[in-house]
User: Fold this.
Amino acid sequence: MTSFIKTDKGEAYNSTIEDFLKSKKGKSLVGKVNLIFTSPPYPLVVPKKYGNKQGEEYLDWIAQIAKDLSKLLTKDGSLVVEIGNAWNKGTPTMSTLPIETLISISKSSSMNICQQFIWHNPGKLPGPATWVNIKRERITDSYTHIWWYSKSEHPKADNRNVLTPYTAAMKNLIKTKKYNHGERPSGHKISKTGFLSDNGGSIARSALIYANTGFDTNYRDWCEKKKVPQHPARMPLELAEFFIKFLTHKNDLVLDPFGGSCTTGKAAEMLNRQWICIEPKKEYLIGAKGRFKKD
Assistant:
């Protein structure tokens, strides 16, 4: 098991996650990984170039991998999994398989479900095409599920690391110190000073909004130069950055078992974390080298 990409902070391996976990390198990581952040192949109706299983086979496959991956985590480490929606073949109805998969991850690995997120992609193309573009019976499916798991009920996490900028209205509120305090219809009692402190930003919400319309020019140009395909299911760098900032500290180890074009590795490198990516398709790792090419 030798690295295909190597930087001062991380490594990418050309391997399946199953083979990697059986290797000496994989076994050496037991109890040492602070965050596993990944987007496995979705349980799609039509197989894609990057590989995906279907039905019960997919469910059993992911559940077993999650169980094995959980052994790599530190006691306060986290597993974060992003999975998109799936549609039943030939009908405008949704499959429950993605949700079943996310539940089975918790059951098979005995990990806690810390929180559920959704990633809304405002730049996503209309789909499923037949039912959205042609028959006009559905609206664009623009979000995916992200579930956060951990061994501990209190894993390493700090929401102060992912604060969002205050709105103009909130900045004015903090400045003027005028707030409609008191009891709300819900029964909550808002103090006079509860929302008037400047904490550097607002606490992030569990609905994350990032468009994936941007691109890494180094990555794109490198793929063209090497005449290899760009990965067809790249997530925005900001999504990986959010969870790495939220759930890890400087020099912690981040692992992506379905590395693709190494978006997770790139985000970890930028945030001064150690990282490992695993990807079975060599052409995607050839392209991923462009992410780490010096300008």
Remarks:
- The radius of gyration is 21 Å.
- The mean pLDDT is 89.
